[in-house]
Write a structure and sequence with these properties.
405 residues; alpha/beta; Metallo-beta-lactamase, Chain A; seven-stranded mixed beta sheet; 18 strands; globular; disordered C terminus
């Protein structure tokens, strides 16, 4: 299964409801970031995904709405104590871009950082995921990326394995994982392999054959859609695509699903853009910021927001209450605090009474001043926190604030 989180879906500039281009892909423990527009790290911080788990960043081109968030994210990873290697991939110029960003801002990384330039045709591994690069056509050097899971082993024929002298237990598991046991090979007891999931992300581009070839038979094609057909001349002038053109690429590539992104702020209703694309390619949706899709078994589904982490409750809770949720979750994640009872109070020192008991264990990054200086000075608060065994926080919170400073 692949998880696909849209952190920013806007075109050119951010708006009140859209951040600029950034998409996170997660397959098991492997996480990739595709493009990194301004504000991307903040979007990650309020999402179910951790920016510290990113193994590679794939930049499609060097226009600001796709790259201005990169230096801040790289430096925040250092300030957060990252030790793991990170690779940034991008078109010609990405090395100079990152070097200039880090030099001018006096940014440092305390972890190994590698920057690689690609132009199309390259293939590399990110954990268990395989990334392929294809050429795109924009008004600046640009590339697109295809991310694929490994094919999964077919169904194990247990009865046949038993008849060949393989007992239940570790040997059966080894065969399932593709390892030969004695004279028995996996091919003798496994059915046809199951195709891994895949996605393709075009970045900014006009429709072109290289996009179709690079996206051949993917489960999901993420295609830029800056304009509708009525602005085809503008799309041609600025080297972008229309909804119709994105749908035609998806159809020609044999993609199963199409997600439109990078839609111009001139279109208030995404449904109109989607309807136009569906005249060509029925399985089309448009992404909103913080949409989280699951790609599995050749299909795609949007995960309901109610099923997500507490980070995703921002639209349902007043902002001060949401800040409280974030701080408690971060501390719990670091220190695995035990569940604490509901608390009620009218002043911050009462609200954070349980927190004060642990203040000697709180690192400077979330010290007393940081918490009391930025969270809540409201009138009343009633909250209850529940923690699951994997230390994700599930929050039920009622907040009534008539005076928020």
């Amino acid at each position: 299964m692949l998880e696909l989180l849209f952190l920013g879906t806007g075109a050119s500039v951010p708006s009140r409801h859209k951040a600029t281009s950034c998409i996170a892909v997660r397959g098991g423990s492997d996480m990739i970031l595709m493009d990194c527009g301004e504000g991307s790290q903040r979007q990650l911080m309020i999402s179910p995904f951790s920016f510290m788990r990113i193994k590679a960043i794939l930049i499609t081109h060097l226009h600001g709405d796709h790259v201005f968030g990169l230096p801040g994210l790289l430096q925040t990873m250092s300030l957060s104590g990252r030790k793991e290697h990170l690779t940034v991939y991008g078109p010609t110029g990405i090395k100079g871009c990152v070097d200039a960003f880090m030099t001018v801002t006096e940014g440092e990384t305390v972890y190994p950082l590698e920057v690689c330039e690609v132009s199309g045709g390259e293939e590399f591994a990110v954990g268990d995921l395989t990334v392929s690069v294809y050429r795109t056509e924009h008004n600046i050097a640009s590339v697109g990326y295809t991310v694929r899971e490994k094919d999964r082993p077919g169904k194990l024929d247990r009865e046949k394995a038993l008849s060949l002298g393989i007992g239940d237990g570790p040997d059966m598991a080894r065969l399932k994982n593709g390892v030969t046991v004695g004279d028995v090979t996996p091919q003798m007891v496994l059915g046809p392999s199951k195709k891994g999931e895949s996605l393709s992300y075009t970045g900014d581009t006009v429709p072109c054959q290289s996009v179709i070839d690079g996206s051949r038979d993917v489960t999901v094609l993420i295609h830029e859609c800056t304009y509708m057909a009525s602005e085809t001349n503008l799309a041609k002038k600025h080297k972008h695509s229309t909804a119709i053109q994105a749908a035609e690429d998806a159809l020609s590539a044999g993609a199963s699903h199409l997600i439109l992104t990078h839609v111009s702020n001139r279109y208030d209703e995404l449904s109109v853009v989607v309807d136009e694309a569906r005249t060509i390619f029925e399985n089309t949706v448009a992404a909103n910021d913080m949409d989280l899709f699951e790609i599995r078994n050749g299909g795609m589904s949007l995960r309901p927001r109610a099923e997500r982490s507490s980070h995703q409750l921002a639209e349902f809770l007043p902002r001060p209450a949401f800040s409280l949720v974030r701080i408690w979750h971060r501390a719990h994640h670091l220190y695995r605090w035990v569940p604490h009872p509901s608390i009620q109070g009218r002043a911050p020192q009462h609200i954070f009474a349980p927190l004060l008991e642990f203040k000697n264990d709180i690192p400077p990054a979330i010290g007393e001043g940081d918490i009391f200086g930025r969270v809540i000075e409201g009138r009343s608060l009633l909250n209850a926190f529940y923690y699951s065994q994997n230390h994700e926080v599930v929050v039920r919170l009622i907040y009534d604030a008539h005076e928020v400073i």
